[in-house]
Structure formats: C-alpha cells, structure tokens
Amino acid sequence: MTLLEKFLLSILFLLPLTQIINLFQQGALPLYILITIVVCICCYFFTLYLIKETMPLLLKAGIQGRDLHKPGTDPIPESIGIVSGPMYLGCVILLQIVYQIKLSEFNAGITSICFMVLLGFMDDVLNVRWRVKIYLSFVSILPLIVAYSGSTYVLIPKFVKIVFSTAHTAIDIGIFYKIFVTFFSVFCTNSINILAGVNGLEVGQSIVIGVAVLVLNLLRLNPNDASMDQEYARFSILLILPFLAVSFAVLKFNWCPAKVFVGDTYTYFSGMVLAVVAVIGHFPEMLALFFIPQILNFLFSLPQLLGFFPMSRHRLPKLNQKTGKLAGQKQHHNLINFWLRIVGPKTEKMLCIHILVFQAVCCVAAFGIRYLYREFL
Amino acid sequence: MINLFQQGALPLYIFITIVVCIFCYFFTLYLIKETMPLLLKAGIQGRDLHKPGTDPIPESIGIVSGPMYLGCVILLQIVYQIKLSEFNAGITSICFMVLLGFMDDVLNVRWRVKIYLSFVSILPLIVAYSGSTYVLIPKFVKIVFSTAHTAIDIGIFYKIFVTLFSVFCTNSINILAGVNGLEVGQSIVIGVAVLVLNLFRLNPSDASMEQEYARFSILLILPFLAVSFAVLKFNWCPAKVFVGDTYTYFSGMVLAVVAVIGHFPEMLALFFIPQILNFLFSLPQLFGFFPMSRHRLPKLNEKTGKLAGQKQHHNLINFWLRIVGPKTEKMLCIHILIFQAVCCVAAFGIRFVYREFL
C-alpha cells in the first residue's frame, strides 16, 4: 500500500475514532458503542474469512467478470455482495438481540435491506433488464415505508417563511414525505451502481458516505438531551457500524488491483443500507447532501440514460496500455470521464482516490451547508 | 368458506385477500415463464434423473415464488396497515431464508452451512416474539404430577423449541424430495391444512387474541398457496422446472413463521408427520451408519416406466415403494400426497381428542 493510501485510510479511521475517544472522555459515550464496535470488529474479520471461502464458489458457479482495465488477466469472481449482505444482516440481528430492540421500523428496515440483497443477487445471477432493476429497488423499500410512523415534518428555511409570510417553523408534508423517501431510496441504490467501473470505487464511495453518516450521528449525541433525537442517533450508529465493518472487509479484496468484483448485489445493498439508516435516523436531507457526487454523475448521465446519445454497457475511460493511464472519453457522459478530461489521464488507482477525495469534500461541505441552514433558519 | 360467508362470519378482508392472491397466482405464472430461460442461461439447471435422455431443465424457480410471496404479503400489509412487529419480523425471516436458499442453490454450500443458514433466518422472529410461551398440560400429566395448572410457562424453552422446529421444517421438506411435484405438493397439502385450521378458529363471537392470530395466519398462508400453485403448474410430472433449495427452504420457513405468528406450532408439528417419519427413516444414513448417496432415488425400470424402491436408500419414498410395489413417478407422488393429507386429517382428530380429554 502506498503512503498516500495509508494516509487516506487513516483519515477515514481516525476521524470518527478521535470523536469517539473525545466523547468517551466526556463520559458521553455509552458503553453500548464500545460493545457494538467490538462486535463489528469480529464481524470484519469473519467477513474477511467468508470472502476468501466464497471466492472459489463464485468462480465455480460462473459468477465472474473480466477486469476491462487489465487486459490479459483471468476473470475474477463477482457479486461478493452476497457475503457482505448476509454478514451485515446477521451482525445487525445479533445487535438487535443484545439490545432487545423491538422497534417495528428497525425490523422493517432490516426487511428492506434483506429484500434488496435478495433482489440484487437475483439480478446478478439472472441479468434482468434495467426496467426490472428500478422496480426491484422500489419494492424493497416498501416494508420500511409501511412501518414508518415517525414525523413527516420538514423544516422551513427563513427566506421561504418571509416570502410566504408564515409563522410556522415546519410543515407536515405527510404522505409526500413517504413518496420522497421511496424515490430517494430507489435513487440511492441505483446511483451508486452507475458511479462505478473503477476498482474500489463502489465500496470506497459507500465507506466515505458511511463515515460521514457516523460522524453526523456522533455529533448528534448529547447526554443532556432526552428527546427522541438521541434514539435516532443511537439507532443510526447501530446500523452504520456493521456496514462499515463489512465494507472495509470487501474493500480489502476490491481495492486496486481488485481480486473480486462487488456486483449489483453490493451496490444495491449499500444504497439501501444508507437510505434505511437515513430514514430510521431521521436525516434523509443530510444523506441527500452526502450523495452530491452521485447526483452529479446521474445528472451528467441523463442525456445518455434518456436516449439522446448512444450508450454502451460500461461507460469506461480508455486504457492507454503504454502509460497504464486511463483517458476520459468524449462520448461517455459521466463523472469519471468528465473528470479525466479536465485533469488529464490518471492511473486507475489515482482516479479512484480522486473521486473518493471529491466524495469526502462533498460530505464535509454538507456539514457546512447544514450549519449555514440552521444558522439562517 | 362459503358456509362461513353465509353465516356472515367471513369478513370482507378474506375476499379482498383472495382476489389479491388470485392476481398473485397469474402474475407468478407469467414471471415463471419469463425467468425459466434466464435460469437456463445462467446455468442454474438440472437433469431429470427419472427421464433419461431429456435436456436439462431450469432449477431454483423458488427465486420467483419467494419474492412474489413477499411482495404479495407486503402489499396486504399496506392494505390492512399491519404494524405488528412480529409480522414484520416474520417477513424478515422468510426473506432471509429465500436469500440464503438462493445463495445455496447458486454457490452449492456444504450441508453444515445449510443448517446454520436455517438457524440464522429464524432469529428475527425469535427476537420479536412477545407472545405467550405457555403450553397446555394434558390431563394424564396433571394426574401424574398432581398439579392444578392447565398450562405451564416454559419461557425461553419455547423459543428454543421454535428455533429448532423451524430449522427442522426447512430441511425436512428438502429431504422428502426427488419426485416431480413432491416438494410443492407436500407444501400445498400442509398449507391447505393450515388454512382449514385457521378457518375453524374464526368465530365472530370470540373477541380474544385468538381471532387476531387466526386472521394473520390466513393472511400469510393464502399468498403462499397462490405462488405454490403457480409453481406446481410447471413442476407437476412431467416437470418443466425444478424448485431448488430456494423453494423448499422458503416453504418450510413460511409454514414455521405462520405457525409461530398464529400460535399453533404443535398443530404444524402434527401436519409434518410424513416429514418427521422420512427424517427418522433417514437418520441412520444421515449419521453415517450406512453409506449415503447424493440423491436417494428409487430406480427407474425403463421398460415399464415404473420406479422401484431400493433397499440401500432409507427414506419414506423407497420404503413405500418396497411395500406397495413399483409405481410410475406420477402415481408415487400422488400416493405420498394422499398420505400427507391423511396425516393432516388425523392431526385434526388428535387435536379434537386432546382437547376433549384435557
């Protein structure tokens, strides 16, 4: 691992770690977080072991792919999300038993994630049409929508209050909140899927967003506050820590040069976990801000998705075999190619790091936007 | 059902549910047809060992029945606004089992992993289960132990029993197999028995929780019958598709979950008598006292087209064939399904006798 990679990885680890140590020193960090961290560390090592065991089984079943940026290499196993999904679910169910959580939204969230992993793996194995993919994401979030009995209020920004001359600080948008959440989770699952094609990118972006979610909820923790907000923050931490554990385990095998591909199973799983945590933890608007790179990639891709321009299956940059660098292609309208055309050809590893740094910068900016929004409310 | 309706005892919700399930049936038929070529293309197929010389047919059609069932139940949950946490947990358990079953079919995991997968899948329901853990004490036990109690609370042992029982349900349907239509057929017979049991429990003058349990059970078993009949249409002899571990695990888990949420696990155990017998017959081979091959099938006599029981295979199918003589594959399946139905009827008899002499 290069020095740069070590440096970036340690930031991902240390940032929440310092927060955790700080909170612990303040006596604000409950014992449960330490227990959860220990369980998640065990989960990480067990997932590593299961990934190693499953890779030959996937190859034998023919679930594999060729690395298009490394011509001449053998196919490697795909859909390692089939390990991360059940491991995550098993870990969360174990934590649910330990903490005796009977909240129906929690259960419904687990159902939604489980359904998405099932449909994602079915998609990977059977190669269903893209229209079916959208339908699958839509059906998966329904259990959570049914069970959701929390607030459907949104805060009104100050300028809107002035324009509409109202004294309310929040309006109840009722069923539109549920409709928004449904579309948002369909977006989350599919947008991670299309910001892909580079070793380590799908897992990497999920980890960066996951760390941002963890940091957000650690900031929300406040021992003096006894409102429901603390419950939401606790559930979010309980749901995001196992996700980071299994994702780091997958990253170990998926980082450039990849030994395994994640498949639609992982990208759907990842998008659904993040959407579910945001709904149960009551911070979907923050998650939307964390997803700015995915939103940008989606907007860039729209002309091709809608058919105005021809679209190939993998819209990858072109590999220059002499220099080993990837060059952005004019005909592919996505974030990766646009970025390479701006900064010039980069190696696959550097490209991945660039995009992940961009993701991290957007997440930090999201915190800034949140601060400004609240100050000027 | 028509009788109950005339009595005014059949609520409107059962009709709505039946209509939804009929749509579910036809939609599942369509999806099965669409998915069969996809399974073949992905290499998920098997040869019918009783029909030598035929092409491989698709396997693991449980990947259609599972999500269709879950989608149907979630739709009903939206319509009836059911927020009960055990209901949700039951859906999670079934979903987890379908996922692990399909993973097993595709990756061919070792049998030890199969047991572990069934065990993990029931955990969400065990966690959420907050109902009674009482068991009724039969009269003779009361006399022997000189106690006035009618029921004892066995607490955590109830949960342990349910866990082991669901592991048993999922795997026992899996081993009573190998004949076209048998896995789906036995599931449908047991499913119908479950439906009949809960229709009997319905009583408009009773306002206790028992009515809730019966209602949930009906809501959970009707979509199961719908998707199973759709699968049977393609799996009945001669089969055009195999069900795979995905379906047998799904089926066992649905039945176990309905029994837990509906509070009738002991009745389900009685419905499972053929599966229990098959398991007991198979024990010597499962434990390694006798050699065991992968498929313990009867031998096909290609001239007569009939299957003959094999001495070396210790399971219900072979034992039965050695008693009644060689039968065609379709007749064998019908025999076993009739035996299953007879056991289910006997179960009702046992229940009646048990309650009379309590």
Overview of the molecule:
The structure is a homodimer. With 377 residues, the first copy, chain A, is mainly alpha-helical. The first copy, chain A, has one domain (3-283). In chain A, 70% of the residues lie in helices and 4% in strands. The first copy, chain A, has helices at 3-25, 31-60, 81-99, 104-126, 130-147, 158-164, 175-194, 201-220, 228-254, 263-280, 284-290, 292-305, 335-343, 348-375; strands at 64-65, 76-77, 153-155, 170-172, 318-320, 325-327. A two-stranded antiparallel sheet of chain A has the order 1-2. In chain A, α2 (31-60) packs antiparallel against α3 (81-99). Chain A is globular, with a radius of gyration of 21 Å. At the A-B interface, α2, α3, α4 and α5 of A face α2, α3, α4 and α5 of B. Chain B: Belongs to the glycosyltransferase 4 family. Chain B: Its EC number is 2.7.8.15. Chain B: Keywords: Endoplasmic reticulum, Glycosyltransferase, Magnesium, Membrane, Metal-binding, Transferase, Transmembrane, Transmembrane helix. Chain B: It catalyses: a di-trans,poly-cis-dolichyl phosphate + UDP-N-acetyl-alpha-D-glucosamine = an N-acetyl-alpha-D-glucosaminyl-diphospho-di-trans,poly-cis-dolichol + UMP.
Main sheet: strand order of chain A: 1-2
Shape of chain A: globular
Assembly level: homodimer
Number of helices of chain A: 14
Question: How many discrete domains of chain A?
Answer: 1
Rg from alpha-carbon coordinates of chain A: 21 Å
The major pleated sheet of chain A works out as: 2 strands, antiparallel
Count of beta strands of chain A: 6
Helix content range of chain A: 55-70%
Order of helices and strands of chain A: HHEEHHHEHEHHHHHHEEHH
Subcellular location (chain A): Endoplasmic reticulum membrane
Membrane topology (chain A): Multi-pass membrane protein
Family (chain A): Belongs to the glycosyltransferase 4 family.
GO biological process, one term (chain A): dolichol-linked oligosaccharide biosynthetic process
